[in-house]
């Protein structure tokens, strides 16, 4: 029985080339992705609420409030309303062609939002909620998060007092800088552990992507 089964596996092994497999399944993959996008867009427009009205957030229209930017989005220093008070926050908005969420981008947005909601911990940037504004052709969606004071690059590369490499001739200042960086390294490892324990990998770990909170 064992021999027969082994022979059958060998005989039925897929002999198609990679190109043949892609030609057969790529159209199906595109159809599935399009359907997922339609479902995600229906969910975003018809089945859920949002923590924030984008129009009520102060600062995102002001280019001087922009504190970060990348290929897919920009981050603004804003003020959000909460229980009668204004709270400083960071707002991430997509840039063209991701500025307006449509069926082509809705599934990716939901995945990013879901990641932020699931990742919680002392050394993880706090996620406050999602802001929405309905516009022609789709939704303008923003991710509202804890406002941090700067990056690890600002704190170490841009500050000699926090960089042990500057103080080879001054043991006292070098020890103080090592103490500072050691504390941050421990917190960084704890943050990474939270991410890994949740089943995620960072993929882009560098000093400009590591934020330091206002409360240190």
UniProtKB/TrEMBL annotation:
Keywords for the protein's UniProt record, in alphabetical order: ATP-binding, Nucleotide-binding
Top-level taxon of origin: Eukaryota
InterPro entries given in the database record: Kinase-like_dom_sf (IPR011009), Prot_kinase_dom (IPR000719), Protein_kinase_ATP_BS (IPR017441), Ser-Thr/Tyr_kinase_cat_dom (IPR001245)
Domain Protein kinase: 61-216
GO MF annotation, one: ATP binding
Residues binding ATP: 92
Database matches in PROSITE patterns: PROTEIN_KINASE_ATP, PROTEIN_KINASE_DOM
SUPFAM superfamilies reported in the protein's UniProt record: Protein kinase-like (PK-like)
Pfam families in UniProt: PK_Tyr_Ser-Thr (PF07714)
Name used for this protein in its record: Serine/threonine-protein kinase ppk11-like
Organism: Branchiostoma floridae
């Amino acid at each position: 029985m064992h021999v027969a089964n082994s022979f059958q596996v060998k005989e039925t092994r897929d002999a198609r080339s990679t190109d043949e497999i892609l030609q057969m399944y790529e159209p199906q993959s595109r159809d599935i992705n399009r359907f997922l996008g339609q479902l995600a867009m229906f969910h975003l427009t018809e089945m859920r609420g949002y923590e924030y009205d984008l129009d009520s957030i102060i600062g995102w229209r002001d280019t001087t409030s922009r504190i970060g930017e990348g290929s897919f989005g920009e981050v603004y220093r804003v003020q959000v309303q909460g229980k009668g008070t204004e709270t400083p926050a960071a707002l991430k908005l997509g840039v063209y062609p991701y500025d307006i969420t449509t069926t082509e981008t809705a599934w990716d947005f939901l995945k990013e939002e879901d990641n932020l909601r699931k990742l919680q911990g002392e050394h993880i940037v706090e996620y406050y909620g999602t802001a929405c504004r309905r516009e022609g052709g789709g939704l303008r969606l923003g991710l509202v998060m804890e406002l941090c004071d700067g990056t690890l690059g600002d704190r170490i590369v841009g500050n000699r007092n926090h960089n042990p490499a500057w103080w080879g001739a001054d043991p006292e200042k070098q020890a103080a800088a090592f103490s500072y960086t050691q504390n941050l390294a421990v917190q960084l490892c704890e943050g990474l552990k939270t991410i890994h324990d949740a089943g995620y990998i960072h993929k882009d770990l560098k000093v400009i992507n590591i934020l330091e909170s206002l409360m240190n």
